[in-house]
């Protein structure tokens, strides 16, 4: 059995940064992952562009499930940008503050991280290696994997929810249930709208003040897109994917402006099914008229005032029932409660056991926020070991 100073389970964003920072102090590190490449999960972030961070991250309560400003005061989004620049990755920020590699390729970020890992002879990468079990005895952690057993004085958990639950339960560490988040939502049928993108729209949850504005994509029986992903966080955090989504199809128009617009379009003297041409694609127009139960074969001149108000209400409150979610989550909500951890993210119950990244009960919206938490938490653990 080979011994190390530190074993890190998980070579995602947080695990890699943790290993690099710890290696700078000369410690002998084992970095374990079931993937074939360190940082491989980064390849699918930011639609393949790797949304490194976001410059608009304060106050954190606006973007995360809780206030984590104190952690970002240690390692901020600006620190992350500088950190990667020093490693050789040049980035830029768009108007929304989202930061990407200048190559617009996630592979650039993965390559830079692996180049940096390879510079440290005291980091051993154990890839294609599946975690199986861990025991703590005689002040040492004994980690059993598909490639053998290893030991260390300190252990870092930098995995997703599935593996982490096995470890947290073993050491009696309190966690919030892991639930899929930033995920497409399954609703009552949207088959007639499948493949249609709408932007900008407002989405809100009927029983909550939670809302977001941006683009949505209709699937055969659900809603996807960044706005839907962000809204899914609400359902994830309460671990209940049931509710009603209310979509404002034309958020830049008030109800009064829409009433005036439709009254003006009566003059077009067309069949009602052509009335929304130039505003909505036919499938969306059909759904609006169908939901309002308005005969689309009538002439626009026959529209009554009450029908116009009904159409406007439907446009401003296009409603769907959420039933569940698709299996395409970007992250997990839930994890180890921060109250269970010290400021250095070490367990208060179990000495020399640290947690970073997604395994912690920190989740943010789309836009680089979750990767920033990974860099920050991985850095904090790495420098404290």
Task: Report what the structure shows.
With 385 residues, this protein is of the alpha+beta class. The chain is built from ten helices and 18 strands. It has helices at 13-23, 69-72, 77-87, 106-118, 161-170, 226-237, 255-265, 282-292, 305-316, 369-384; strands spanning 2-9, 29-32, 53-54, 91-93, 98-101, 123-126, 131-137, 140-145, 148-157, 175-181, 185-187, 197-205, 211-219, 222-224, 243-248, 318-325, 331-336, 353-355. Strands 1, 2, 6, 7, 8, 9 and 18 form a seven-stranded mixed β-sheet that branches. A hairpin with a 2-residue loop joins strand 8 (140-145) and strand 9 (148-157). Helix 1 (13-23) runs parallel beside helix 10 (369-384), helix 7 packs across helix 9 and helix 8 (282-292) crosses helix 9 (305-316). The model has no long low-confidence stretch (mean pLDDT 95).
Give the SSE map.
Elements: E1 2-9, H1 13-23, E2 29-32, E3 53-54, H2 69-72, H3 77-87, E4 91-93, E5 98-101, H4 106-118, E6 123-126, E7 131-137, E8 140-145, E9 148-157, H5 161-170, E10 175-181, E11 185-187, E12 197-205, E13 211-219, E14 222-224, H6 226-237, E15 243-248, H7 255-265, H8 282-292, H9 305-316, E16 318-325, E17 331-336, E18 353-355, H10 369-384
Parallel strand pairs: 1-2, 1-9, 2-6, 9-18
Antiparallel strand pairs: 3-5, 4-5, 7-8, 8-9, 10-17, 11-14, 11-16, 12-13, 12-15, 13-14, 15-16
Helix pairs in contact: 1-10, 7-9, 8-9
């Amino acid at each position: 059995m080979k011994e190390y100073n530190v074993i890190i389970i998980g070579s995602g964003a947080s695990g890699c940064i943790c290993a690099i920072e710890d290696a700078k102090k000369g410690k002998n590190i084992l970095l374990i992952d079931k993937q074939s490449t360190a940082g491989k999960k980064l390849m699918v972030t930011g639609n393949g562009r790797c949304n490194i961070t976001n410059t608009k991250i304060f106050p954190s309560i606006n973007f995360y499930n809780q206030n984590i400003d104190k952690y970002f005061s240690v390692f901020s989004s600006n620190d992350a940008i500088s950190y990667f620049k020093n490693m050789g990755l040049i980035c830029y920020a768009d108007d929304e503050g989202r930061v990407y590699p200048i190559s617009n390729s996630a592979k650039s970020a993965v390559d830079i991280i692996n180049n940096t890992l390879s510079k440290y002879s005291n980091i051993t990468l154990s890839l294609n290696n599946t975690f199986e079990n861990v025991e703590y005895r005689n002040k040492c952690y004994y980690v059993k994997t598909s490639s053998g057993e290893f030991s260390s004085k300190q252990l870092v958990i930098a995995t997703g929810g599935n593996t982490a639950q096995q470890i947290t339960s073993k050491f009696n560490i309190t966690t919030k249930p892991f639930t899929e988040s930033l995920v497409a939502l399954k609703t009552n049928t949207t088959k007639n709208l499948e493949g249609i993108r709408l932007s900008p729209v407002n989405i809100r949850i009927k029983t909550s003040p939670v809302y977001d504005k941006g683009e949505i994509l209709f699937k055969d029986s659900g809603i996807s897109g960044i706005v839907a992903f962000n809204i899914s966080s609400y359902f994830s955090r309460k671990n209940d994917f049931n509710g009603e989504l209310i979509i404002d199809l034309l958020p830049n128009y008030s109800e009064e402006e829409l009433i005036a617009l439709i009254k003006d379009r009566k003059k077009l003297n067309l069949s009602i099914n052509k009335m929304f041409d130039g505003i909505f694609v036919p499938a969306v127009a059909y759904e609006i008229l169908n939901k309002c139960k308005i005969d689309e074969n009538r002439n626009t001149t026959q529209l009554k005032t009450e029908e116009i108000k009904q159409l406007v209400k439907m446009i401003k409150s296009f409603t769907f029932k959420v039933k569940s979610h698709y299996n395409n989550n970007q992250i997990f909500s839930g994890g180890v409660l921060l109250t269970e951890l010290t400021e250095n993210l070490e367990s208060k119950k179990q000495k020399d056991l640290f947690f970073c990244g997604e395994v912690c009960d920190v989740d943010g919206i789309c836009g680089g926020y979750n990767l920033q938490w990974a860099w920050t938490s991985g850095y904090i653990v790495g420098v404290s070991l």
